Amino acid sequence: MSNSKFMSAAEAANLINDGDTVGLMGGGGGLMEASCLFEAVQARFLATERPRNLTMVHALGIGDKKTKGMNCFAHEGLVRKVIGGHWVWSPAMQRLAEEEKIEAYILPGGVSSQLLREIGAGRPGLFTHVGLGTVCDPRQGGGKMNKSAQDDLAEVVQMDGREYLRYKPFPVHVALVRASAADEDGNISFEHEAANLDAQSLALAARNSGGKVIVQVRERLPHGALKAREVRIPSAWVDAIVVDPDQQASYDIPFDPALSGELTGEVRYQSESADHEAEKAAAHVAFSERQAVARRASVELFNTGKARPVVNYGVGVPDAVAKLIAARGEQHRLYQTIEHGTYGGTLLDGVLFGYARNASAMLDAATQFDFYAGGGLDIAFLGFGEFDEHGNVNVSRLGGLTVGPGGFIDIAQNARKVVFCGTLAAKGVKLQTGDGQMRVLQQGAVKKLVKQVEQITYSGPQGLVRRQEVLYLTERASFRLTPGGIELFEIAPGIDLQRDVLDQMDFAPLVAAGLSVMDRAYFQAGAD
């Protein structure tokens, strides 16, 4: 009888039992997503209503907002509980949470990756400051995102006179892992992947929980084809391997060596989907408030006191900051990182956030988050859904909908300097700029500067304790966190302070005695 670990996707899906805790990996857009395995589990459930009542655990966002990724598991009865880092890629799973048909939880993306590693090492959970004062702190909700969620994922502990959170361990019964190739012995390589993510931590957690490690790869290689240093998951950890010859780098890119770091060159999309056409068109849009905020924010990048700062860019307006730095040819002046584990290169955005062209290094996600948590990140540019008079920021729950923080909490709480970027209001706002001024033609129906945020994803009070420099930059005005509260210290040219700023806020900020006006060049089309 053959003892080969290779099998079909359907056979691998049959290894999952009712009530199992299943660990997943992925980073949005198809990044390291085991799509073939996901679809096989869904097909089995739709045909047999098995497996049932699974607990799904994932650190980052997985899916396409339609049918892929976490959407494969968004069926009533298939899933009982989800502990997710980022939920927006699966509106179907968000609806199940909103309708109380599943237990919904969030954890910081880095905490999830690191906790898996601790589970695999048999340690008593993850002890960390990350999450204190946020929604993941049991005093602020403990990551529970709906009424059905009743479990306590973390507890507050005291050590050496300081507070920490202990995120509690749990067994991982199945790990669905994605990689590039497996040799006949079952050794696993990531050679053609665009990131490493938390594949090793996930496999380790399942292996040492007595669970099953199921790996999807594109290639089956002969015995001895992989050099020892190319093996990222050893055969001893692996239970089952599924070969998917159609596995792609992303949902729309079959393969590009510039994304996997194997060759230097331009990314050549081999699939001209509507999404890619839209992304290309977006690169040529007219000058807007987004670019104006990016210009203002970019000034802070080289005011960190470091000759070559280590930086992280989030999604949204921060994307524009990254593009601006690249357009100016200033990447050599900084160390660019992504929480997925990547250093350097040119960042892709939109559905391809998490990918980088011509990266200089790729680490596993848990190690990258260790670097962040230990204070290695000099500055971070992040978006905001809303912020309040205490400096708290919310990106994890908006309009009652579970969004999740992804790596936001780990990054925002640990960067020495944090620059939150976004617009001052939303829904119906009409702005005009490009001539050196910013004009508000129509105010927004939704205020983003609120008395109290719906949920705390970044804690202003904790930022003060950690002595962070924190700025909140919008197209109309700039604010900073002070011990006395949020201070307004500059406004855009053309903006009426009372009508366009103060009247559009739900709290009265401190106003700097020397209130300044931003440089008109930030608002001038073609000024770059």
From TrEMBL:
The keyword Nucleotidyltransferase does not apply. It holds the Pfam family CoA_trans. GO terms for molecular function: acetate CoA-transferase activity. The active site is at E339. Its EC number is 2.8.3.8. It comes from the Bacteria. One of its GO terms (biological process) is ketone body catabolic process. It catalyses: an acyl-CoA + acetate = a carboxylate + acetyl-CoA. Keywords: Transferase. Gene3D superfamilies: Glutaconate Coenzyme A-transferase. InterPro entries: 3-oxoacid_CoA-transferase (IPR014388), CoA_trans_fam_I (IPR004165), NagB/RpiA_transferase-like (IPR037171). CoA transferase having broad substrate specificity for short-chain acyl-CoA thioesters with the activity decreasing when the length of the carboxylic acid chain exceeds four carbons. Belongs to the 3-oxoacid CoA-transferase family. This is Acetate CoA-transferase YdiF. It comes from Polaromonas hydrogenivorans. The lineage of its organism: Bacteria, Pseudomonadati, Pseudomonadota, Betaproteobacteria, Burkholderiales.
